[in-house]
Amino acid sequence: MTARSGAELRLGIAGVVTLFVLWELAVRGGLLSPLAFPEPVAVLRALGALLIDPSFLAQAGDTLLAWILAMVVAVIVTVPIGLVMGYISALYRPASTVVHAARSVPATSLIPVAILLFGLGTPMKVAVAFYAIAWPLILNAMYGVHAVEGQLMTTGRSFGWGPTKLLTRVILPSAVPSIATGVRIAGSIALLLLVSAEILGARRGIGTVLTVYEEAHRIDFVYAGIVIVGAIGMAIYYALAALERRATPWAHAHRGG
User: Fold this and answer.
1) DSSP state of 29
2) Backbone conformation region of residue 62, classed left if phi is above 0, alpha if psi is from -120 to 50, else beta
3) Segment 188-198, tens digit of pLDDT
4) Could you tell me if 106 and 73 are in contact, meaning their C-beta atoms sit under 8 angstroms apart?
5) pLDDT at residue 257 above 50?
6) How far apart are alpha carbons 224 and 222 in whole angstroms?
């Protein structure tokens, strides 16, 4: 972890602590209803209970498994598509229009269709997350290839490089930073869609646990589950950001770290 990312992490933790303090003061002062906003102490107790509950940990594992599957499948399928669309000039503009139109359809609106097609298991969740993250991955791959400097391509051709060498020595190194950014963005979106799909209709996952506690009026456990989802999301973001820095050190050096 770099000094910059470490400072960002410390600021983030400080922000969370400040939020909890303000929350506690607001509940004690009567500004927030305890029925909708339990005291942070109660949430922390529920958080500790969830973290040692094997059943909840298994549900969280199911969510993470679906996240991994969605990310792997989406990267394998969509990044090559984006590279081709960005490389072939005749496809770039019409493909951009189609992708922007498709990404305007909320993935959550397709959850009922996904349930009909795949049932309530992991395939349904992966399908919904895949649809949501496919478009930013395609777009970033397209933009990365399309933004390759023409001078670099001309230089490569002057060396007598064919399409394969141009792809491996010019296009991919120039497009990888944009692709890595797309993967980082997709990671957060995938988690959001997976939990949404679990809340709206699934057999397993953190979202189903939140629904059960909400129906049982255990709002402290609901907030504890939300905190855990937020922590997972933060961990995913920083892990992908670290991988991005390692995969594209030249891009971060160019931006001054």
Assistant:
1) T
2) alpha
3) 899 999 999 99
4) no
5) no
6) 5
